[in-house]
TrEMBL record:
<feature type="domain" description="Chromosomal replication initiator DnaA C-terminal">
    <location>
        <begin position="17"/>
        <end position="86"/>
    </location>
</feature>
<dbReference type="Pfam" id="PF08299">
    <property type="entry name" value="Bac_DnaA_C"/>
</dbReference>
<dbReference type="GO" id="GO:0006270">
    <property type="term" value="P:DNA replication initiation"/>
</dbReference>
<dbReference type="GO" id="GO:0006275">
    <property type="term" value="P:regulation of DNA replication"/>
</dbReference>
<dbReference type="InterPro" id="IPR010921">
    <property type="entry name" value="Trp_repressor/repl_initiator"/>
</dbReference>
<dbReference type="GO" id="GO:0005524">
    <property type="term" value="F:ATP binding"/>
</dbReference>
<protein>
    <submittedName>
        <fullName>Chromosomal replication initiation ATPase DnaA</fullName>
    </submittedName>
</protein>
<dbReference type="GO" id="GO:0043565">
    <property type="term" value="F:sequence-specific DNA binding"/>
</dbReference>
<dbReference type="InterPro" id="IPR013159">
    <property type="entry name" value="DnaA_C"/>
</dbReference>
Length: 119
């Protein structure tokens, strides 16, 4: 999905959930998903947006950082560092409120009744 150096075991459901957090962060920050998932080293807003998506997956789904890394195509230490950085910034009221809102939104999407599509 992101860095071709690391491909750990992941499920289709994990990739869908990671994609949901990426899309939610993209819609809220204006940073396109393709910038957050670019194969090269990310800088600036794209890097920070990806951190937000990984942290959102970590707290909303209760995933350990290893699973976050697998779902985002990154290694565990990269995911852990992203989660630590965002957690450290939750002291800022605006970011904390934003993340609380995003967590509720993701849960609402996942708690909605499933829709079976005809073939």
């Amino acid at each position: 999905m992101m860095e071709d150096e690391y491909q750990g075991p992941t499920t289709g459901e994990d990739r869908i959930r990671a994609g949901l957090t990426l899309q939610m962060v993209a819609a809220s920050t204006g940073v396109p998903v393709d910038q957050m998932t670019h194969r090269n080293r990310l800088e600036g807003r794209a890097c920070r947006a990806r951190w937000l998506a990984m942290y959102l997956a970590h707290v909303t789904f209760g995933w350990p950082t290893e699973r976050v890394g697998h779902a985002f195509g990154l290694n565990r230490s990269t995911a852990a560092q992203a989660c630590r950085r965002i957690e450290d910034e939750r002291d800022h009221r605006m970011l904390d409120e934003f993340l609380d809102h995003m967590e509720r939104c993701v849960r609402q999407v996942l708690d909605a009744p499933s829709c079976e599509l005809p073939v």
